[in-house]
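INFO batch 0412 | record 1 of 1 | parsing
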Amino acid sequence: MAAAAAHLTPTILELGGKNPAIVTRDANISVAAKKIVDGRFKNAGQFCVAPDYVLCDENVLDEFLKCVQRAVTTFFGKNPQDSESFGRIVSERHCKRLAALISDPTRGGKVLMGGDVNISQRYVSPTVILNPSVKSKVMTQEIFGPVLPVLSVKSADDAMEFVNDRHSPLALYVFSRSSSTCNHVVNGTRSGGVCVNDVIVHMLNETLPFGGFGESGMGNYHGIYGFRAFSHERAVMIVDPSHDDLSRYPPYKSAL
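INFO prediction complete | emitting tokens
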């Protein structure tokens, strides 16, 4: 930004962030779990728009967790380290950072599955942590890895309040069978983008703008939006040379 500012060059920033996935009590729990697992653990979680944590209605929490565990096993087998469909962490340094998030003494909560780390193999197993402390590193840093915190909330409104008390995320995901519930969540929160009843796929649609909001970035790109962001729309108005409205000139007279 400093280099661009010196020349007043237009700038777009995509800064990432902690992307929440809200699972309401009337969601299709099985489908929601599969899509969230796929989005969180795809490329071993190294995705800027991956769901970073889940806010799940307490009334469907047990069912959701069972579906998450079932999806992980279905996708990657009983030993994900042997799966050709599960990726590796990009570097040992990043692997150590993820290990520190999992072992953070302030983390709290309960590791429901995973938690295994092999630094030399750059492997972190698909990890699900239930109700970690909101002040822990796993809840205050962007994870960017195969670790999924799941927090229990009483309602969609409580989930919205939780999201709004934090930095605006790059993406927000909401799962519900009710269009009114989805609209309520979308209209009552802030984020760079939103995807309803799915994750990640909104950024693949080039007819939609993609970008952050607030702390997660500024400006949009993809398709025509990237072209417009770095182009100057020059306004040109052409007036008929014979047109001369005398009412514009002084002396002015009262209309009454």
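INFO post-check: The chain has a mean pLDDT of 95.
INFO record closed
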